[in-house]
Specification:
metal-binding; hydrolase; NUDIX_hydrolase-like_dom_sf; 19% helix; NUDIX hydrolase; 8-stranded mixed β-sheet; magnesium; alpha+beta; Nucleoside Triphosphate Pyrophosphohydrolase; 8 strands; 3 helices; 38% strand; 154 residues
C-alpha cells in the first residue's frame, strides 16, 4: 500500500523532547552499483549524510532534498519512501546533547552544483556503499547505507 506523505506542521517543543530530523541518502549509479555521497559535518569534519529540521509545508522527503541541496549542492529527485531511522545525540553550542531521530529518504543525484549554500563549510565525496558505511559513526545509519538497494524503490 502506498501512503501519501503530507506536508509537515511544526509544533513547539520542550527541551526534553526527542527531535526529528530528515536525512538524504544521496546516491548515483556507476557501473551498475550505487555510490553514496557523504559530506563532512561543520564542527568536527566527520562524514555524515545531509540532514536537517522539519520545515512547515514540506513533506519529509522534500525536507531531505532541501538539506541535500544546502549541504552538498545536490540537484536530484527525492522519493517519499523512508529507508529507515537512526538515532544520535546532536551536540549543541552549549555542549549539551540533544536526542534526535533522523528519518532517511533516498535522493537520486542528477548533478552536483559547484556553488551551493554551504560549499565553503563542508567537503563532499562519493563512496561505495561499503566504504560509506565504514566512515559513518552511527551504527544504524551504517546499516541503512549497507542495505540500500535502489532497485526496490517504489
Amino acid at each position: 500500500m502506498l501512503i501519501k506523505q503530507l506536508p509537515i506542521t511544526v509544533r513547539a517543543s520542550h527541551k526534553s523532547d526527542v527531535r526529528t530530523q530528515f536525512a538524504a541518502l544521496c546516491y548515483r549509479i556507476s557501473q551498475d552499483r550505487p555510490q553514496i555521497l557523504l559530506v563532512t559535518s561543520r564542527k568536527t569534519g566527520r562524514w555524515i549524510i545531509p540532514k536537517g529540521w522539519p520545515v512547515c509545508g514540506l513533506t519529509p522527503a522534500d525536507c531531505a532534498a532541501k538539506e541535500a541541496w544546502e549541504e552538498a549542492g545536490v540537484i536530484g529527485k527525492a522519493r517519499d519512501q523512508c529507508l529507515g531511522i537512526y538515532s544520535y545525540d546532536k551536540v549543541m553550542d552549549a555542549g549539551n546533547g540533544l536526542p534526535c531521530v533522523a528519518m532517511v529518504y533516498p535522493v537520486k543525484v542528477k548533478t552536483l552544483a559547484q556553488d551551493y549554500p554551504e560549499h565553503a563549510q563542508r567537503r563532499r565525496k562519493w563512496f561505495s556503499q561499503k566504504k560509506a558505511a565504514a566512515r559513518l559513526t552511527e551504527p544504524e545509519l551504517a546499516r541503512i547505507v549497507r542495505d540500500f538497494n535502489p532497485k526496490i524503490l517504489r
